Amino acid sequence: MTDRQTQLIDALTGTAAGNRGSLQTVYEMTSAKVFGTILRIVRRREVAEDVLQDVYVKVWRRAGRFDPSKGSPITWLCTIARNSALNDVRRNGRQQELAEEEFPDVADTKILAADDWLCAEQDSAALADCLEELRADHRRTIKLAFFEGLSHSELAERVNVPLGTLKSWIRRGLAGLKGCLGG
Amino acid sequence: MADTTDIREDDPFIRAGEYALGALEGDELGEARRLLLADQGFAEAVEWWEYRLGSMSEAAGRFMPSPSVWPGVLARIDAEDASRDSVPVSFEPRRQSPWNIAALVAGAGMAVAGLVFFIATPRTVTLPQQPPAATTPGPQLIAQLDDEDSARKLAGVIDVESNRLALSITGLEADTGKTPELWVIPAGGAPVSLGAIPQSGSFDRELSRAEADLLVAGSTLAVTFEDDTGQRHESPTMPILLAGPLDQV
């Protein structure tokens, strides 16, 4: 575990104990990444900042539920962020203020310098390896669903295939990941 | 290249993955939400997928939010706390906390009256005996930590002048090989172990100078279960069982 990962776990522990200074440390260490996760899904900066606020209020309330044996703290944070962003899109619809070109290419999961990576490196490497073993169309649709929060029908429209085909790709891709990751 | 040919349409593990991805919609989403509440196995599968898929989250990139977001987070926390505190007048009996401090201070210039714990439940937890406060006792710090769900409780009193820590503990029974461990978390700092504590009953010991320096108003006391190694641990193991601020009396 790197110093930054340890620092983040310590800050999350302090947050769970009700320490606002610790929450600020969590925010300073993670907000840019969490904001990236949200912005990709809601695609409008003003809305994304509202969701970001909501995420850190949830972190304040729920930090005690984080279990490091299940995954890294940044994964836990980004999961809260994804779910919050998805709920917002389902309630209010998606407004495409920001274009795809404004985001880094998710095909390259190693776009961050190693010392900036807060996730457990072996976890992300294992997933990256397993994704590489999938068929290209399965891999692409799973990444589109994950990073952009697209539903089955939105994905089918995006990649221009029938809905049944799209669902089959997603399910086969997930089955491949399950086998590869040992689920 | 992986391509699993036989996938059951209703395989709940794969359906959990679709839910974690956020791809479900309509009736399929509604059914998955129902399963999430009703089926623990499905909920655990969703969590498994969220952590596995979530390990690529950082590839989404970094984008700096506006400087106004952080103050907004604090304002929302304050607003929520204030709304929780301002309970409307009601004739319905409100549930009393089983762990309230009913009386703390006798007033300015007066001696500390002592700590009286009002216990609404039949089980009474008493504080450890305090040194007699004949005339003008020095300042004390107190913390009351409780979890209504698990009935775990800890009351702590720190006598600043005598450098003593006194605890009253209920319900911290740990699995074999584990022990409850007490932590102090300075404002904005990392947790520091204060060592193992009993699973129940009273506990009283002297504090080292370094410990006393950390135990100040605004710091937080917390309890976790740790491996019973006889040594203090460097960092706590989640989850936090109990936590609460130290307040000066």
Automatic annotation (TrEMBL), chain A:
<keyword id="KW-0238">DNA-binding</keyword>
<dbReference type="InterPro" id="IPR013324">
    <property type="entry name" value="RNA_pol_sigma_r3/r4-like"/>
</dbReference>
<dbReference type="InterPro" id="IPR007627">
    <property type="entry name" value="RNA_pol_sigma70_r2"/>
</dbReference>
<dbReference type="Pfam" id="PF04542">
    <property type="entry name" value="Sigma70_r2"/>
</dbReference>
<dbReference type="InterPro" id="IPR000838">
    <property type="entry name" value="RNA_pol_sigma70_ECF_CS"/>
</dbReference>
<dbReference type="GO" id="GO:0016987">
    <property type="term" value="F:sigma factor activity"/>
</dbReference>
<dbReference type="InterPro" id="IPR036388">
    <property type="entry name" value="WH-like_DNA-bd_sf"/>
</dbReference>
<dbReference type="GO" id="GO:0006352">
    <property type="term" value="P:DNA-templated transcription initiation"/>
</dbReference>
<dbReference type="InterPro" id="IPR014284">
    <property type="entry name" value="RNA_pol_sigma-70_dom"/>
</dbReference>
<dbReference type="GO" id="GO:0003677">
    <property type="term" value="F:DNA binding"/>
</dbReference>
<dbReference type="InterPro" id="IPR039425">
    <property type="entry name" value="RNA_pol_sigma-70-like"/>
</dbReference>
<dbReference type="Pfam" id="PF08281">
    <property type="entry name" value="Sigma70_r4_2"/>
</dbReference>
<feature type="domain" description="RNA polymerase sigma-70 region 2">
    <location>
        <begin position="27"/>
        <end position="94"/>
    </location>
</feature>
<keyword id="KW-0805">Transcription regulation</keyword>
<keyword id="KW-0804">Transcription</keyword>
<dbReference type="InterPro" id="IPR013325">
    <property type="entry name" value="RNA_pol_sigma_r2"/>
</dbReference>
<protein>
    <recommendedName>
        <fullName>RNA polymerase sigma factor</fullName>
    </recommendedName>
</protein>
<dbReference type="InterPro" id="IPR013249">
    <property type="entry name" value="RNA_pol_sigma70_r4_t2"/>
</dbReference>
<feature type="domain" description="RNA polymerase sigma factor 70 region 4 type 2">
    <location>
        <begin position="126"/>
        <end position="175"/>
    </location>
</feature>
<comment type="similarity">
    <text>Belongs to the sigma-70 factor family. ECF subfamily.</text>
</comment>
<keyword id="KW-0731">Sigma factor</keyword>
From TrEMBL, chain B:
<dbReference type="Pfam" id="PF10099">
    <property type="entry name" value="RskA_C"/>
</dbReference>
<dbReference type="GO" id="GO:0006417">
    <property type="term" value="P:regulation of translation"/>
</dbReference>
<dbReference type="GO" id="GO:0016989">
    <property type="term" value="F:sigma factor antagonist activity"/>
</dbReference>
<dbReference type="InterPro" id="IPR018764">
    <property type="entry name" value="RskA_C"/>
</dbReference>
<keyword id="KW-1133">Transmembrane helix</keyword>
<keyword id="KW-0812">Transmembrane</keyword>
<protein>
    <recommendedName>
        <fullName>Anti-sigma K factor RskA C-terminal domain-containing protein</fullName>
    </recommendedName>
</protein>
<keyword id="KW-0472">Membrane</keyword>
<dbReference type="GO" id="GO:0005886">
    <property type="term" value="C:plasma membrane"/>
</dbReference>
<dbReference type="InterPro" id="IPR051474">
    <property type="entry name" value="Anti-sigma-K/W_factor"/>
</dbReference>
<feature type="domain" description="Anti-sigma K factor RskA C-terminal">
    <location>
        <begin position="108"/>
        <end position="240"/>
    </location>
</feature>
<feature type="transmembrane region" description="Helical">
    <location>
        <begin position="101"/>
        <end position="120"/>
    </location>
</feature>
